[in-house]
Amino acid sequence: MKKKAARSGRRVAASPRANKAVPAALLAAALRAQSEGVFIAERRCSEFGLTILFANDSFCAITGHSARDLVGRSHGFLHLERADLERLRHWSPKAQPGQPLVGEGMLLRADGQTISAAWSFDPVCCPGGKISHIVATYRDQTEKRRLQEALVHAQRLDAVGRLAGGVAHDFNNLLSVINGYCEILAAHVAANPQAMREVAEIHHAGRKAAALTQQLLAFSRRQPLNSRVINLNTLVQENAEIMRRLIGETGRLDLELAEGLDNVRTDPTQFQQVLLNLVLNARDALRDRGRIVITTANREIKPGLNRRLTDTPPGRYVLISVTDNGTGMDADTQKHLFEPFFTTKPEGKGTGLGLALVYGVVQQSGGYIYARSAVLVGSTFEILLPVVHEAADLPREPVAALPVTRGSETVLLIEADEVVRKMVAGILHADGYRVHAAKSAGAALREIKELDRPLQLLIADVTGDSEPFARRLHAAHPGLRVLCTSGQACGVGDTWLKDGHGACLNKPYALSEMLKAVRKLLDA
After folding, report:
1. DSSP state, 228?
2. What's the gap between Cα 151 and its chain centre?
3. Fewer CB within 10 A of the terminal residue: the chain, N end or C end?
4. pLDDT-derived band at 101, boundaries 50, 70, 90
């Protein structure tokens, strides 16, 4: 009985299948089936690398070489960096089982392209326990690296956008003061032509600076868009003549506009700037026999085609592209294309804000923009905007200028910037209004506590955290009108004000625009 039990115990513990030797043919087949690139080499490492004895199909696919080309050669010709081989030469003599050499770097393929790869070199022991060979495993991580770079680039653009938006907001306040006091000063020096010319120059410079801040706000996606349903073919055709004049004798403009193009929703004025910026950049890059092509098309991206985070989501889009056969751009330039103040033009020839505005308007319109370029071949900028299944809006009639009339209503002005507050309160007071000015909601409550007549108009930035205060004020003064003065999009009046009782005025605004907006609200 004891012998049977012992014999039975040995059968349970032995597990004959686990100890059975795997045929060499099966091991070789397993190596060939690996999705990662594998080669086996002799242990000795020369200055040219390891001598390859076997390479699987995946390694051949990664490098672009056939197994016949690889076997018998030193692997070092694949590595771009000499330092990779030096590390291997120092590691090889003292290699120990279970202590691989890992690294990553660039490889040169048979077709001349470079790829990013990660690798691991592991010692292989012979039956006597001595290290006889090295097995190397390679993984192509070119796509992973590209995605990481795209993510870093997107994060950098987002950070720069937040900075640009904050700077533009502060500059809007300063420019409102400069432009506003220019208007006030012009009334005092109207009889002096020389002084009027100087004031006009200051005002002109201030308005140019205001246009630059609008581009910064567009890049940071804080510039309000006056979106409408439009057809991009119509927009291109309406601007074709001015674009041809801008190009002049430098080259020619060709239009390849698709029939039956779907409509999109964007701000036509802002998108006109997008189009003109891209055409001007293309013109500056043209050489002899230059050609710029504007193309439109309907495009559908089906589910399953967007496998990467940076791919455009599935859906129906309208494509508009601007292509030139100019000087093109190198890879480093393309990495910084949409960053504010980045420009390849000579000093004084460009602000570096053109493509930043393009990027911001496209992003704010829910679209995507891609650039392709090669030196001495040319560049293509592709924009994809989501399709909307609505008829294009009819062109809006220009709004007739309203006469500025003297008022007597009670107005509450809330403005954090002291200089802007003083200027706006002064011009409203001069026009006859009873103005109560404060720098914050808390100060405003103290200012209006002793009011002896109803409050009729609130002028303030009522976006974000300021909206609850405006609502409470409206509840106390039911007839209150609200003029939202903001450097970004505001939706005042969307839900809690009667139609015509709310309006928005984006900074930096002209005092004449502000006075007209005030009068229009109060007369509604």
Report:
1. E
2. 11
3. N
4. very high
Q: Which domain holds residue 87?
A: 23-140
Both 235 and 367 in one domain: the answer is yes
Cis amide prior to 123 (ω within 30 degrees): no
DSSP letter at 120 equals E
Residues 38 and 31 sit within 8 Å (Cβ to Cβ): yes
Question: What is the DSSP secondary structure assignment for residue 249, as one 8-state letter?
Answer: G
Query: How deeply is 63 buried, as exposed, middle or buried, from its count of CB atoms within 10 A (0-12, 13-18, 19+)?
Result: buried
User: Would the pLDDT of 10 be above 60?
Assistant: no
Cα–Cα distances (Å) from 336 to 65, 371, 437, in that order, read: 35, 11, 44
Helices 418-430 and 511-523: angle between axes, nearest 10 degrees: 60
CB 385 within 8 A of CB 332: no
Same domain, yes or no: 251 and 381: yes
- Measuring CA to CA, which residue among 241, 244, 172 is closest to residue 210? 172
Q: Up-side HSE of residue 319: CA atoms within 13 Å toward CB?
A: 19
Tell me the DSSP string of 475-501.
HHSTT-EEEEEESS---TTSSSS-TTS
Q: What is the CA radius of gyration of the chain?
A: 35
- Contact (Cβ atoms closer than 8 angstroms) between residue 263 and residue 392: yes
**pLDDT for residue 252:** 93
Q: Is residue 113 part of a domain?
A: yes
Could you give the number of structural domains in the chain?
4
Q: How many residues comprise the chain?
A: 524
Amino acid letter, residue 301: I
237-267 pLDDT, tens per residue? 988 887 887 788 889 999 999 999 999 999 8
Token reading at 437? 């000015």
Residue-by-residue DSSP string for 63-103: HS--HHHHTTSBGGGGBS-HHHHHHHHHHGGG--TT--EEE
Pick from 329, 357, 388: which residue ends a domain?
A: 388
> Is 443 found in the same domain as 317?
no
Tens digit of pLDDT for each residue in 233-245? 999 998 888 788 7
3-state secondary structure of 113: coil
Mean pLDDT for all residues in the chain: 80
On whether the pTM is more than 0.70, the answer is: no
The identity of residue 129, as a single letter, is G
Residue 347 sits in the same domain as residue 382: yes
Report if residue 5 sits inside a domain. no
